C-alpha cells in the first residue's frame, strides 16, 4: 500500500478520536436548526462527537493491533515496494495515536 494512504488513515483515525469543532456559545444561534440539517451539531454538540464510536471500532475490528503491527513490522512502500526502511512520519503519527494506547 502507498505510504501516503497509510499516513492519511492514521491521521483520520486521530481526527475521529479527537474531533475539533467550533461550536458557538449557546444562545447565539439566530435561526432554528432542524434535526436533519448538517448543522444540527450546533444545537447539540454531543451529536458531533465521534470519539466513542471510533474507540469502539478500534477495539472491535482490531485496528489498534494493526497499528502496533505496522510499527513493529512495517511493509515496504514506494512505487515498486522498493523502500524497506521505516517511514519516520508514519511512525510518529502512529506512536502519537491514541489508537495504540487503547490497546496497551
Give the helices and strands, then pairings.
Layout: H1 3-17, H2 51-60, H3 63-72, H4 88-96, H5 98-103
Largest sheet: none
Number of E-type strands: 0
Structural class: mainly alpha
Strand percent estimate: under 5%
Percentage of helical residues? 40-55%
Computed Rg: 18 Å
Overall geometry: elongated
Spell the H/E element sequence.
HHHHH
List low-confidence stretches: none
Q: What number is the mean pLDDT?
A: 78
End-to-end C-alpha gap: 26 Å
- Number of H/I helices: 5
Explain the overall architecture.
The chain is 48% helix and 0% strand. The chain is elongated, with a radius of gyration of 18 Å. α1 runs parallel beside α4. It contains 5 helices and no strands. The chain has 104 residues and is mostly helical.
Keywords summarizing the entry:
5 helices, mainly alpha, 0% strand, 104 residues
Concise account of the structure shown:
The chain is elongated, with a radius of gyration of 18 Å. 48% of the residues lie in helices and 0% in strands.
Amino acid at each position: 500500500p502507498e505510504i501516503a494512504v497509510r499516513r492519511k488513515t492514521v491521521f483520520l483515525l486521530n481526527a475521529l478520536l479527537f474531533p475539533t469543532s467550533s461550536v458557538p456559545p449557546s444562545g447565539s444561534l439566530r435561526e432554528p436548526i432542524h434535526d436533519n440539517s448538517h448543522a444540527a451539531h450546533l444545537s447539540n454538540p454531543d451529536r458531533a462527537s465521534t470519539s466513542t464510536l471510533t474507540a469502539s471500532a478500534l477495539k472491535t475490528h482490531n485496528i489498534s493491533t494493526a497499528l502496533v503491527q505496522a510499527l513493529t513490522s512495517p511493509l515496504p512502500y514506494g512505487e515498486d515496494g522498493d523502500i524497506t526502511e521505516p517511514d519516520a512520519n508514519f511512525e510518529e503519527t502512529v506512536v502519537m495515536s491514541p489508537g495504540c494506547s487503547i490497546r496497551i
